[in-house]
Amino acid sequence: MAEPHIAVPELPNIISVLSNIFYSCQFLKDLRFWESTVFSAVVIMVLSGAAFIASRRIAVVPGRGQAAIETFVGGFDGFIYGILGPRGRKFTPFIGTLFIYILTMNLLGMVPFMKSPTASWSVTLALALCVFIYLQYTALKELGFSGYLYHLLGRPKGILAFSVFIPLLMLFLHILSELIRPISLSLRLRSNIWGDEMLLAVLANFGIKAVPLLVFNMALGIVAAFVQAVVFCLLTTIYFALISEHE
Q: How far is the C-alpha of 58 from the C-alpha of 224, rounded, in Å?
């Protein structure tokens, strides 16, 4: 006997609403299947447009908007510098872009008839794989193949360098941890954002009497959106620190 299908509560978005109204339209059905990718693309276009407009208005004497952006960039650069040191500044554009992109996607679900793309594992896994690939590329570029292999072996010295079991054990553990990182990084972000959206959907079903609780949880969701973006980027920064040359 087949198990009954349990519907997961979900806030309506513009794509799901249109596909329910025009249920015979195949294009909307296909669009609903790819809705996380669509909303991700919307975020990319919005951020690209904002960056283009902001870059065209750069002044020697900054206004309030430019001063706010420069303060954020300087603070974020100092954050990366504090963990990775001077050589870490080359990672600031990558990690900073990740932070802005993830934060915007997290907050998009708070906008009526929108959806947080980071509530989908396909989106967060793609982000984590970008970090994983760039991390391996950086390790091979800075340490070389032999240096990276030495790092994976646990940098054995003394008598440990002549043993076989411990370096091979460290190699297995390091490779396993490298492969697990994208999964844990993506699931942590996806699960928290998905849980927040599901809670808001459940509260919305209670009607007008749940409005105070709904507003309170939306405020918590905004805080959680910021925290999860920070955690993702902080772990990414630490991963880069772990494969850097140990002075």
A: 32
